[in-house]
Design brief:
31% of the residues lie in helices and 29% in strands. It has one domain: Vaccinia Virus protein VP39 (Rossmann fold, 3-Layer(aba) Sandwich), CATH 3.40.50. By secondary structure, the chain is of the alpha/beta class. A 7-stranded mixed beta sheet has the order 3-2-1-4-5-11-10, with helices on both faces. It is built from 8 helices and 11 strands. The chain is globular. The protein binds S-adenosylmethionine.
């Protein structure tokens, strides 16, 4: 595989096309604790009262459907992968779909009341351009919710380490080269590679501020009770956050 940094937009789009059915299988058809217990209820609550929403990088549309069902929102879901959009189109209810690159959204300025990106920006090379585009299409007084794999706790090569040499033996969570921005492919499942762009939290926050947003709240949810009940082996990492959620206003 070439380094992600050398890959153009089309190659990245092909990867998402190729992995589209894997994504649907993982996150649409079975219980996923991060989505069901944390992301869906949280975003729904944060966006209640905002009518016209753009779900940027909306993929197979799980979050869009939830916003339509729970909040009665009018949702436009954009994605550069036609396969992802088709998977979303096949579901009911279905948002309006528009195939678009994140950094080039085909909408006028200020046409949405709010935007959400859910597990998207950490996969995107043109990060600054993407945030500027999202800022452009949200009206003044609107809201932007970003859900990210936690940039500090889920750095490349982070994870639980068993130190058998320590006396007594111990476990700790390794965080590797947090400040170093890097591109890599992660094998998220057997032979399923996805591109990841690591950036520190300061990069996210400062880019949001420079693009006209005011940061309202940051959330770092622990693993849910239900998640731990179903997977007791995760108890020791319950308080290592998997997600960082940023709520900002324009
Ligand atoms: C991890 S999936 C998340 C999908 C959806 N937001 C969800 O939470 O179920 C990331 C999505 O971002 C899309 N994506 C990645 N890079 C993109 C880009 N540069 N422009 C538009 N969409 C992009 C992918 O096609 C994929 O559907």
């Amino acid at each position: 595989m070439p380094m992600v940094a050398d890959m153009g937009g089309n190659d990245r789009k092909s990867l998402w096309d190729e992995n589209s059915s894997w994504w649907s299988e993982q996150y649409t058809t079975r219980y996923d604790a991060d989505y069901e217990d944390v992301i869906l209820p949280f975003v729904c609550d944060a966006l209640s009262g905002f009518r016209k929403i753009i779900d940027v990088g909306g993929g197979e549309g799980r979050l869009s459907r939830y916003l339509i069902e729970q909040n009665g929102s009018e949702v436009v879901s954009t994605d550069f992968s036609l396969f992802q959009l088709r998977a979303s189109e096949a579901q009911d209810p279905s948002p309006n779909h528009v195939q678009a690159e994140l950094a080039r959204l085909p909408f006028g300025g200020g046409v949405f009341d709010a935007a959400v990106t859910c597990l998207v920006l950490e996969h995107v090379l043109e990060f600054l351009e993407a945030v500027e585009e999202i800022s452009r299409v949200i009206r003044s007084g609107g809201r932007f919710v970003l859900v990210l794999n936690h940039p500090a706790m889920q750095t490349p090569e982070s994870g639980l380490i068993f130190d058998h040499v320590a006396e007594p033996p111990t476990k700790y969570w390794r965080i590797s080269n947090y400040l170093l921005e890097s591109s890599h492919f992660e094998e998220v499942d057997k032979e399923v590679f996805l591109p990841f762009e690591h950036r520190p939290i300061s990069k996210y926050i400062n880019t949001l501020i420079e693009s006209g947003f005011t940061i309202d709240r940051l959330y770092e949810p622990a693993l849910s009770e239900r998640h731990i009940e179903g997977s007791p082996e995760l108890t020791s990492i319950r308080f290592i956050p998997r997600l960082l959620i940023v709520v900002c206003s324009k």
